[in-house]
Amino acid sequence: MTAAPPPAPRPNGPRAAAQLLYTNVDRVADGRAVSGWQTMEVSAGLDEAGATLMRGLIEPSLNPLRPLPGFPTPEEIGAAERRFAQVPTGIGTVLVHTAPAGVDTTGRPNTMSHLVLLPDEPAPALMTADLWRSPGWVAPFGPDRVRGSSLPDPAALVAGSAVDDDAVADFVAAAPRGPVLGAMADALQPRVLARVDGRAPDEAADLVVVACASTDEAALWVGALQRTCAPATGRLLGFSTLERLTGSGDLERLSGIGLDLVFVPPPDLEAVWRRTGALVVDPDRPPSTAPITGWGRLVAAVCQDRGAWMAGTVAQREVIGLLADHRDLSPAWPLAVAEACDPGLLADELDDVVECELVDCQPSALIDQPYLSSIISERVLGSDCREPADWWRRLAAVPANAPVTGLVDGLVSRYLRAASQSASWLLDERRATANPGFLHVLQENGAEVSEDSVVVDGNLLTSRGMATAVDLGLEIIRFLLDDAAVEAVKKGVVHQY
Asked: pLDDT value at position 203?
C-alpha cells in the first residue's frame, strides 16, 4: 500500500444527532415535584417516537460481579463497572451508557443512563468502542449530583484512553485472541451483512454470549473486533459490555432490541450453555475448530501475533481512507483488500477467501478509485482457470446492484470467453435448437434437441437459423425486458407473424 495516501486524522468523537438522560430522581420539573425513574432531559430535535424507542433500550439495573463499596472513593467510582451498549435501530445507531449513580433519596441503588443517537455518516472514522470510559458520558454519583445533571455539549463526547490502537494491540498480543475473535466474527457475519444490505437479521440467528470478568475487558474485545472492519460497518453491530442472564426470557429480550453480542460474568454461562438461541464463547476455552466465514478467517489471520495485527489493521485503515462512503462494505472487505494489495500480509492460505470477498462486495465508492479497482481486478482476474463453471461462480456472486467496474467487466469477459469455448457447459441437459446441419453437435454435448424455430431454456436462447432471426430477437427483448416491450417492437417491424 505504499502508493496509497495516509489516512485522514481520526476525530476525537462522533457528531451526536440526539441525546437523552434517564435516571431515578426527585426534582421539580415544570413547576411541580416529580420523583422516580424518568427522562431527565432530551435533545430538542428528538421527537417523542424517537425518545420512546431510545428509552426502550435502557436496562437501569447493573448488578456487576464487583459492586461498589458503601462509601466509594472517587477513584473507585471512576473505575466502576458500567454497561456500554450499541444498538442498531430504525432511526439509526444508538449508544447506551449506564453508570452507577450511588443511591437515590430512599436508599435504593440508582443508575444514570446517557443515550446518544448517532447520525448517518458515510465515512465515520471513529470506532464507537473507543468511547469506552469517555469523560463525556454523564455519570454523576449521589442524589444531589444526579439532580443537577444535564445533557452535555455533543463535542464533550470524545474517545477515552482505555480503548485505543495501542491498548487493543497490547490486548490482542497478550494471549492467543485469534480463535475467540474468529469465532465471534464467524457467528456475527450474517447479522452484520444483513444490516449492510438493509435487511433485518435472521430472527433464528443465535445471540453470541461471551464470558468476561470485567467490562473493561469486554470493551477491548469489541474494540479489537471493530478494528477488523470499517467503522461504518462496526456501527451495525449490536453489543453490550455487561448483561446478566438469570431469567428465562433474557436471550429473547436482548435479541429483540437488536443486540448481537453480549458479555456476561462467567457464572452466568451455566444458565445458557445448553439453551437454544445462544452461541456461547468462553475465552478460557477457545474454540478448537477453525473459522469458516470470510470475516472469521481473516480475523483469525490478523490476530496471529502483534506484527500481523499492526500490519493488517494499518493496511485496512488505509484502504478505508480511500473511500468516500463505506456504508456498503462487508465486514471482511477491508482486510481482504489489504491482503490483495500485499499478498502474504496476513497469511499464505487466504487466496480463496480474499477472492470471494472481493467479488461478493462491490462498494459504490470503488468506481471513483481506479487504484483499488485495478488491484482488485488483477487479484481476481489473474487466475489461469479455464473452466466456465469457475468464472460463472465468480460472476454469479457479484451483487445485482453492483456498479460496473473493471472487475465486473473482466468477469463477464472471462466467463463469455470460457463459455464460448465449451459447448458442453452451454448445452448439457439444456433444451436447444439449431440449424439442421448442426443438430448432431447439440446431441453430442448433452442437449435435449428441439425442432422449434426458437427455444428458450432459462438463460439459453437458441434458434434454427437466419430465417428465425427476428423471432429470436423478440425473445431476447422479452428475456431482457418484458412482454410489453416485445409488443412495442412488433409494431415497428415488417414481419410475417
From this structure: 83
Averaged pLDDT of the chain: 88
Distances (CA, A) of 21 to 147, 173, 206: 11, 37, 31
Helices (H), 131-214: 143-147, 165-174, 178-196
**Residue spans in the chain of domains classed CATH 3.40.50.880:** 424-490
Residue tagged 431527565 (cell numbers):
40
Maximum Cα–Cα distance across the chain: 97
User: 167 in the Ramachandran plot: left (φ > 0), alpha (ψ -120 to 50) or beta?
Assistant: alpha
Contacts (Cβ under 8 Å, ≥6 apart) of 18:
42, 43, 45, 46, 50, 54, 116, 117
- End-to-end distance of the chain based on CA atoms, in angstroms? 61
Distance (Å, whole) CA 165 – CA 98: 24
Closest C-alpha among 372, 292, 391 to residue 332: 292
Q: What is 424-490's CATH topology?
A: Rossmann fold (3.40.50)
Return the closest-CA partner of residue 227 out of 137, 327, 322, 303: 303
Residue whose C-alpha cell reads 494471549 in the numeric block = 175
C-alpha cell at 28: 421539580
Binned at pLDDT 50, 70 and 90, residue 497 comes out as low
| 278 has pLDDT over 60 | yes
Q: Is the pLDDT of residue 5 over 60?
A: no
Give the model's pLDDT for residue 11. Answer: 53
Q: Is residue 96 scored above 60 in pLDDT?
A: yes
Distance (Å, rounded) from C-alpha 244 to C-alpha 267?
A: 10
464 SS3 class: coil
Report CA dihedral (97, 103, 108, 114) to the nearest 10 degrees: -20
Strands (DSSP E) contained in 405-495 are 431-432, 448-449, 454-457, 460-463
> Which neighbouring-strand residues pair with 210?
263, 281
